[in-house]
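Chapter summary example: a protein plus FH3.
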Amino acid sequence: EASAIEKRRWTLNDFDIGKPLGRGKFGHVYLAREKRSNQIVALKVLFKSQLQQSQVEHQLRREVEIQSHLRHSNILRLYGYFYDQKRIYLVLEYAPKGELYKELQKCKYFSERRAATYIASLARALIYCHGKHVIHRDIKPENLLIGAQGELKIADFGWSVHTFNRRRTMCGTLDYLSPEMVESVEHDASVDIWSLGVLCYEFLYGVPPFEAKEHSDTYRRIMQVDLTFPPRPIISSTAKDLISQMLVKECSQRLPLHKVLEHPWIVQNSEPSGVYKS
Ligand SMILES: CC(=O)NC[C@@H]1CCN(c2c(Cl)cnc3[nH]c(-c4cn(C)nc4C)nc23)C1
């Protein structure tokens, strides 16, 4: 029986390596078992050479720092890391039901009950993150995994930032910060509300709201908040209302996350357990 995995100075010998699970951005992810605890984990292997080439070491350090301190059922655990001559290894929670984007491709789009259940659990996870001054900044189907009970797990904090230390590292004191700097640090958290609105739309229609052939067209559609709801599949007006309150250009006007959880569409459609049973 797997006892609790406890973080210590791990080396590769502490793990039995299993099948490849897929590719992250900078390396492969393998199924693995930590020998001492018999715990099944996902071992993400990153090549130092690749990280150096892309100057993302600071991003990885931040990802590890942030994700290792977060404890929430809808956030993929980072148990620890270790490295050798050429590689860095992240010891991550294993999500037995795999990647959400594959599930969305298979179903084309989700029912309103399934979409609302997922959005509610992600809103709760983001409230937890924002409470710790962490913003994810990269909420999308590719960064979501599915746990044993079908619950969503936010993974890949590679783009997350700790807004708090941005203030602290700014210049020690807030006094000299210009309004727009204080404003921007304050409003960063609302980028996750926008992304949650985009995700809700994509869960219901199978495509993101501002998709276009050319990047320049997508960019313009986002800047103009060119939000239209296709006639098919038929979606409730309460769902459209919630999406319209999250995809608002002025970030201070976006529906706060705790209000998302109180919205009629969420209250009427999401599973209280946070788990969608198909
Ligand atoms: C967010 C992110 O890094 N995604 C890419 C990596 C690919 C496998 N990674 C996994 C990570 Cl990091 C954790 N758990 C996983 N479970 C699976 C998986 C399970 N099945 C049945 N099929 C798959 C695939 N994959 C993972 C993440």
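Key point: Confidence is low (pLDDT under 50) at residues 165-171.
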